[in-house]
């Protein structure tokens, strides 16, 4: 009988936990003409406005439970739900961020709460118009840090954050050595808007303003030209690919072959959480390129496993740790198989440990039934009965 195999914990470096609430609810034609990322976004906005603070806890806990069951031990949560739906700041302006942190802590995951600056567009619930408020909120959140909780910043995107504000947020993060994450070059329309406003593409805009560094992770970074890849390589900046979400939204394929060639680290995120399986994301990073290039075996499997683990940890500035999961060698998905990335199905993941604490034993989490029941109640209340 073969031995149980231990692997370092997987990292989802980019997640919006609340979007788990709309899984499977946005796959029908919306009836407004051509469905794209932008029509999906309308459905996501409606969900974002429907959830109460307690709902956000319950939905986040469901997402983090699923992550734990999938061998994920750390999450970078790109958090932009800040206000009441009408835009009023809560008495504690970090109320919702703290609900998300509490959800991760109760499940037992490591979390890096990436406090998101959203300044224009979007929904009133997302907005922090004053950079002083944003920095004060972030400082307050840093007071919640523990061995398993840390804080970073996330200017949402070039379209949502004007350049002056962006400089302020990134300067603050660099002074305090915080990770900086930002959606970048996800959709062609975003490139067009940036060209109109600044006369430059998004990655070039950041480069010319000295905003790229090894603390910076661009999320998606799909629609880039060769010069932009050079700017990322030169500054030590990183990329977070989210292939499952990117194909779900019709974003395009991350040019991971070009990033790997130029030494730009690529980590992975479950993003919209439409499915949660970081090893599947690692496979897709390769498979999407196969479809595009009509070739095979473009990225090294060891490099893909590094994307699923160490690259995510480094992007989030998490220290080396002993978090791990075990794989059942007799699971049908992996029995007799050699490579973890290309063989392992989620059912093979048996035990998961974070910081010495066992979260998952024999494929189950101790609070699983209660977390699922609470999540189903939110769904029933907020959407339609299942
Ligand atoms: Zn995202």
Q: What would the average pLDDT be, to the nearest integer?
A: 96
Q: What's the CATH H-level superfamily name?
A: Metal-dependent hydrolases
Name the strands of the widest sheet in spatial order: 1-10-11-12-13
Annotation, overall tally of beta strands? 13
Helix tally equals: 15
* Unreliable parts: none
What is the class in the CATH system?
Alpha Beta
Instruction: Tell me the distance between the termini.
Output: 42 Å
CATH architectural label: Alpha-Beta Barrel
Bound small molecules, by name, code or SMILES, are: zinc ion
**What would the principal axes of the Cα set say about the shape?**
globular
For the sheet with most strands, the description reads:
5 strands, antiparallel
Summarize the structure.
The protein is an alpha/beta fold and 386 residues long. 41% of the residues lie in helices and 17% in strands. It has one domain: Metal-dependent hydrolases (TIM Barrel, Alpha-Beta Barrel).
């Amino acid at each position: 009988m073969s031995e149980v195999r231990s692997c370092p914990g997987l990292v989802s470096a980019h997640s919006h936990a609340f979007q788990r609430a709309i899984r499977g609810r946005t796959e029908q034609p919306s009836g407004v003409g051509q469905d794209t990322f932008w029509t999906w976004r309308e459905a996501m906005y409606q969900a974002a406005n429907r959830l109460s603070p307690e709902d956000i806890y319950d939905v986040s806990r469901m997402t983090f439970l699923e992550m734990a069951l999938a061998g994920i031990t750390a999450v970078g949560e790109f958090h932009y739900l800040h206000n009441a739906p009408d835009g009023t700041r809560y008495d504690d302006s970090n109320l919702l961020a703290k609900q998300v942190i509490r959800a991760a802590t109760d499940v037992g995951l490591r979390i890096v709460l990436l406090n998101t600056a959203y300044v224009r567009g979007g929904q009133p619930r997302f907005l922090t118009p004053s950079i002083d408020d944003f920095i004060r909120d972030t400082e307050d959140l840093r007071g919640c840090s523990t061995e398993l909780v840390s804080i970073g910043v996330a200017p949402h995107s070039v379209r949502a954050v004007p350049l002056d504000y962006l400089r302020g947020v990134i300067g603050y993060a660099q002074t305090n050595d915080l990770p900086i994450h930002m959606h970048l070059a996800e959709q062609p329309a975003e490139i067009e808007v940036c060209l109109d406003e600044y006369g430059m593409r998004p990655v070039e805009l950041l480069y010319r303003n000295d905003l790229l560094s090894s603390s910076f992770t661009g999320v998606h970074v799909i629609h880039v030209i060769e010069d932009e890849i050079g700017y990322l390589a030169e500054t030590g900046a990183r990329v977070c690919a989210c292939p499952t979400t990117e194909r779900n939204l019709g974003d395009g394929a991350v040019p991971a072959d070009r990033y790997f060639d130029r030494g730009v680290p690529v980590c992975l995120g479950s993003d919209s959480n439409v499915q949660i399986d970081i090893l599947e994301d690692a496979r897709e990073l390769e498979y999407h390129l196969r479809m595009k290039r009509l070739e095979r075996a473009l990225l090294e499997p060891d490099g893909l496993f590094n994307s699923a683990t160490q690259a995510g940890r480094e992007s989030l500035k998490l220290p080396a740790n002993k978090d791990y999961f075990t794989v059942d060698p007799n699971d049908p998905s992996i029995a007799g198989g050699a490579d973890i990335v290309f063989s392992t199905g989620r059912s093979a993941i048996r035990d998961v440990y974070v910081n010495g604490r066992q979260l998952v034993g024999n494929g189950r989490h101790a609070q699983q039934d209660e977390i699922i029941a609470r999540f189903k109640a939110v769904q029933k209340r907020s959407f339609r009965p299942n």
